[in-house]
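Problem: given the chain below (475 residues), write out its structure.
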Amino acid sequence: MKLKTAFFSFILMASMIYTTIVPATNTKANEPAKAVVDSALTHNLLTAIGPVEAIVTFKSKEGVQPEQLKLLENLGITKGLTLNELPIAGVLATKSQIDQLAQSDQVVSIYLNKKLQYENAEATDITGVDQVRTDDAMRKLNGGLPVTGKGIGVVINDSGVDGTHKDLEYGSHLVQNVLGATNLHAVDSLLPITYIENVPNTDTSSGHGTHVAGIVGGTGAMSGGKYEGVAPGANLIGYGSGAAIAMLDTIGGFEYALTHQQQYNIRVITNSWGDTSDAGTDFDPYNPINIATKKLYDRGIVTVFSAGNSGPDAKTISGNYKKAPWVVTVAAGDKSGKLADFSSRGEEGRGGTVTVDGQTWKWDDQPTVTSPGVDIISTRVISPIPLLGATDDAQYIEPAYIPYYTTMSGTSMAAPHVAGIIALMLEANPLLSPSEVKLILEQTATAMPDYAAWEVGAGYVNAYKAVDAAFNLKD
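Solution.
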């Protein structure tokens, strides 16, 4: 146990030394010479007839400041939403207004509020983490109770969660369920972002977020525990953006995690969405999603992303923000330990260094780890019952359970599996930092010798070894 602690301490120290001595190849992410304007926004403005949806990031440590709000108003930007913790505003603005904004020394970047996609493919079953729950030594280290992620808050930043499902019961297991509202065309002034909380069911048109939530921490109540999630003791927080999703919606989920961190002990946020048009790109420190996830990292919250479903080709990870050195990005594998064909890959040798908040970071174009994402059985929305995995449901699920569970495949299913494992790790050792969590996941993963790191990351996630290492680092 002491040897393991010394080993991880050495690795962490080496990592910190590396980030100190590697020369930076970019300017400081939070202090560009002038505002960065997203190329997608520039392209969109060439053909736009009226105002476009844009995301403005300001130079501020604590939300959008009054003088920055005044800047928007002075330029005639009167419709939008401002965030409280993040220095970000979503606005409706014309080309002329954006050009003027870009000249302001208060603005870091301006990006198009791009449409995103949820990352589930065809339907399917899951491998479990039963060894963690049944190991007697771990039970004793955990005060006599099995490790279940008890008390760890996990945000499901997705389409929503059906809290009327007994496996995800709202008010007890699903401790909060939020309906996000960032429709810029529905506002008539510049207002702080608002949330509709305490909604029993926010997943009425997709089923995607409910399936993801069940993988993280469903209790298995409707199957006698058979289809229990990875961390059934975790406190789940749903943040639902509906069947359609854009960048500002997802940033709203990050903002909610920050503003409600203390209330729900939020330590993890899982994200199963992406942007295939942003595949094969370099990590962009000025992207508002990267600015948001860095702040979560600074606050001790681990951000988990799905890698995407555009494999088996290289350069297909769906979003530059999935290459951020402070996030965990997950590829999808099958039950035999192989990489799924659909799972997005990075690119061999692609990476670089960037300085953010005075620290030099190294980023790589590859997933962090691989986890189960093929043939996953999890919770379905209760009403209306969608077809989802109808064909595979009949093959994999007992008829009595089909009204409550369905099968799906995709990196959308792989990411929440790792989010659940992180909840188990944090129950075992609540003092773990996001960097320690990521390092443990990488160091304990099972090697996948038939694949390169740019395809699978460090290998297939190993929940037992990861939780064991988390316990050992307490010494």
